[in-house]
Design brief:
This protein has about 150 residues and is mainly α. It is about 75% helix and about 0% strand. The mean pLDDT is about 85.
Length: about 150
Amino acid sequence: MPTVYPLLMGRRAMIAGTYVVSALLLWATGALFVRGNLSAQDQTLLWCAIFFFASAAASSAYLTISEIFPLELRALAIAFFYAAGTAIGGVAAPWFFGVLIGSGSRLSVFYGYALGAALMIVAAVVEAWLGVDAERKSLEHIAPPLSTRVEL
């Protein structure tokens, strides 16, 4: 009889789940914002909740991404994914949202929120689909070091 444990628990489920929760909260915040239903305090509290879940998702994803790479490539993998994420999230996103805010249109800002939510849903689907179940396994079992591989 198959167990539902892998579907409900573990890092893959946690990462995907926290991305989905973040996306739903972000979309709901955008919907409330576009209607003018948020005070500054409400907006701040919702952003705190969004970042609580999004931080868990992103941090876990960064830390576990290296598990699928052989020992000799793990540091490079972490550095590459961190640099790519920082470039997109730290450079492109502030510019993009600055443009949306500068438009003076609440609807434009909502579209930015919706885009961010959609990207997080895509991240959740990719993690659920391609994520590695690494619980209770050694890193060498998940991705053997290159030095132990036999060449044919």
